[in-house]
Inverse folding.
């Protein structure tokens, strides 16, 4: 068993930076990112059942936009307001609280008897999602070594698209003639099952982030967390076991000094990627119906097939962002998205259904390989004492963009048509590309610096 001498919080940070990835850190990464699976399922499940939901409550296009946007509004609140508590009370407590909210919200939404009740539970679900993204990504960033940090955090998007595909596959075997207008209830309510599994897994396997503990807990407690997380023996040789003297930061710290350009870049990427995804990607089931025919099977299978391109792009984005950089991958993705939407919008009447589907798949691929990593950038642009705030702010910006996408897409599409709407949306990745060109910042600038050696270790 490895033995580590700890004299200060910096010894803990140096150990985490240099510690090779192993089965334990892989397990903890999966447990943390498992919440992203639940988050994505909760968003995507409503997209699959939106046709039945519209019929069940006789919703207008404005009400459809509201029922989808309300969850994003809750996530925006959860991210911005909750970010400070992620830094103040710790990663582990929030990891448990937010998934518990998702369990309650999924069951409540599925049993809703009115449009207003459904709105309330979707808002609660949004708050849970808004908390989960920043705390899960912060936790992963603080348990893996410096070399694999970008790739590990970036895996959240792979988890998202796997869950989005899973939501359709869960529903596909069920006969819509049996469930009728209530198929959406099953789709939403089923999300409580994986949420409960993740809740139990986090409670029994996870612990506090060693980095957060080093800065916020007495050193002897931080040492015990380090021992449990990495299965090592810690010899504490500190002159003082008092709590860290780190000052509690406020949101304004993100807009000062060297952090200001990072915050601007992360904000713009998070907003623009959310607008393009949640206006187009979220509505893939209904767009599949418009292209291939108005049936639930086309909606579900279309969504699953398109999300496979998301999985491929997300995997490549996570793989190469650690070497190429999140910013450069985002710029590449913006170009792919813009071209796809422009071609679709201008040549819509001349395209076969398969070419239209191909362009949408290319758009999803481009989004996931680049700008979809906005939350990765927001998480890795700040040190431990600011990471909850920074990641929470990024989540708030992403949900602000998703509110626009959720709410405006069905309204504009109803009046202008799908092709014209996609032309409008093509402006969004162009804006993101211009800002990314202007601000030259990427987390790999710090990650590629020399990894500190852990000199005071031995093996027993």
């Amino acid at each position: 068993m490895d033995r580590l001498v700890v004299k200060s919080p910096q010894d803990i940070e140096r150990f985490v930076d240099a510690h090779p990835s192993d089965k334990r850190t892989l397990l903890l990464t999966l447990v943390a990112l498992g919440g992203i699976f639940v988050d994505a399922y909760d968003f995507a499940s409503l997209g699959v059942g939106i046709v039945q939901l519209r019929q069940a409550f006789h919703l207008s296009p404005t009400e459809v936009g509201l029922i989808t946007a309300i969850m994003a509004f809750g996530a925006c609140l959860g991210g911005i307001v909750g970010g400070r508590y992620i830094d103040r009370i710790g990663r582990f407590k929030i990891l448990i609280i937010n998934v518990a909210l998702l369990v309650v919200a999924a069951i409540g939404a599925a049993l809703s008897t009115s449009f207003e009740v459904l709105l309330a539970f979707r808002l609660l679900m949004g708050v849970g999602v808004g908390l989960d993204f920043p705390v899960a990504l912060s936790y992963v960033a603080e348990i893996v070594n410096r070399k694999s940090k970008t790739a590990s955090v970036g895996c959240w998007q792979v988890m998202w698209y796997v869950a989005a595909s899973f939501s359709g596959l869960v529903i596909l075997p069920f006969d819509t003639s049996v469930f009728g207008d209530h198929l959406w209830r099953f789709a939403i309510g089923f999300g409580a099952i994986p949420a409960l599994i993740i809740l139990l897994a986090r409670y029994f396997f996870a612990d506090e982030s060693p980095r957060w503990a080093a800065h916020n807990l007495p050193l002897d407690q931080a040492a015990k967390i380090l021992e449990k997380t990495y299965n090592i023996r810690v010899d504490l040789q500190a002159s003082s076991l008092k709590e860290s003297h780190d000052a509690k930061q406020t949101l304004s710290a993100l807009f000062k000094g060297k952090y200001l350009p990072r915050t601007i870049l992360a904000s713009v990427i998070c907003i623009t990627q959310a607008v393009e995804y949640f206006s187009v990607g979220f509505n893939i089931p209904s767009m599949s119906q418009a292209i291939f025919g108005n049936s639930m099977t086309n909606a579900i299978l279309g969504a699953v097939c398109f999300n496979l391109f998301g999985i491929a792009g997300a995997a490549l984005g996570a793989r190469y962002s650690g070497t190429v950089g999140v910013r450069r991958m985002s710029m590449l993705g913006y170009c792919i998205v813009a071209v796809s939407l422009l071609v679709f919008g201008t040549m819509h009447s001349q395209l076969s259904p398969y070419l239209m589907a191909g362009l949408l798949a290319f758009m999803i691929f481009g989004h996931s390989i680049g700008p979809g990593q906005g939350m990765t950038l927001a998480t890795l642009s700040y040190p431990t004492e600011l990471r909850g705030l920074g990641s929470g702010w990024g989540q708030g910006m992403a949900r602000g963009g998703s509110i626009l996408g959720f709410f405006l897409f069905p309204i504009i599409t109803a009046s202008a048509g799908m092709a014209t709407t996609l032309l409008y949306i093509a402006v969004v990745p162009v804006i993101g590309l211009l800002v990314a060109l202007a601000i030259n910042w990427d987390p790999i600038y710090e990650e590629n610096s020399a990894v500190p050696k852990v000199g005071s270790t031995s093996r027993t």
